[in-house]
Batch of 2 targets.
Target 1
Amino acid sequence: MNRKKDRLEHTIRIIISDIFLKEISDPRIGFITVSSCELSSDLKHAKIFVSIYGDEKEKKRGMEGVKSATKYVQELLAKRIKAKNVPFIEFILDESIEKAIKLTKLIEDIEKNESEID
């Protein structure tokens, strides 16, 4: 079951990435990356984590666009996926990439300050 779940998560992530790249033209959605997909154990629900490039205002607008496109994305996913049941999708803003970048910068700043002290 885990292998099937992992494959399905990967497939859903790829399909939804492709949908946003080629078929969604909402101007609110700028540069978006589908970072991961987490399926529930019964495979009926999928949390789709997306990263949106921009400041807080752009991210908020982008997520509004993403959420308004959910039903359409769900329909396109249903047409493309080879699964008995298509999971209900929910989009969640993933800020882990930005947090990692900020953390890396903080570490670099600390290292720079320590080397200046020595």
Target 2
Amino acid sequence: MKRRDFIKTMGINALSVATGSALLASCGNSSAGSSKAAEQLPSFGLITGSGGQWHPEGVVEGLKQIAAWGYTELEGGGGRGGGLSPEEMNGLLSSLGLVRLIGSANIQSLIGDESELKTNLERALNIGQKYVACYWPWPGSPGTTIDEWKVVADNLNRGGRICHSEGIQLIYHNHDFEFYPIEDHIPFDVLLPLLDPVVGIELDLYWIVKGGKSAPEYLTKYPGRYPVLHVKDMPADVKCGVAPTDFSTLTESDFAPIGSGVIDFPEIFKTNNISGAKHFMVEADKPPGGTAEFLELSAKYLSKVSF
């Protein structure tokens, strides 16, 4: 199953929420102490669009609950929801302190007609989004040669420069297959040096760990390239660094509420000043315990975590 099929259409309409060092008990390493004064996250948000509808009273009450839990930023589509007009939705979000921060851009839009892309970017800017994320840089399955990854860099650079010219930043979201060798090279390490600095990375902390790599190592290896982190956790029995994931096999047992699994988030967040991370978006492809419980527990952890 392709990841682009696995990710459902994002949008507030459904209010469906999907929601390092890997420094894992199961995948190695542990946190080190520091004499530096403890810091906390400036804010955190969530990605809408996959994870299941969850609030019985609909979108409006769901948004109110999200804000009450402490989420302040949204990643996903714009438009109307809950029977509200776009203007009414904007007013509701503003009253709740919720910001629509990140939209989406598929690879076809980035390499297709420039005027159409600019129209989409104008729409994103009009609802306040500062970033558009490309979650799957392929017209089909991931490439199996390094030359194909170099084409990905060219395509992201083209789209990224157009986005930049319109006042919005393109960010690329990784999975785990970027960290498995192809032709004796790690695709992520081929891609990053080729990307124009205007293209940022939305590093998914779960997937880099699942790929058997250290999130802190990569966050410091390419300083200033990661404006957004996707924050999600995994149970101790998830196997890392074995083989690229077949997304169709994922279940709730592959994920954990943030702070209850084995990813060492304090150690990761210590790199924020180096990595450039400013935004921390909660995600779970298959939220354990149901979306509402997952979001509440994750928010409680992120509102208190210090590093």
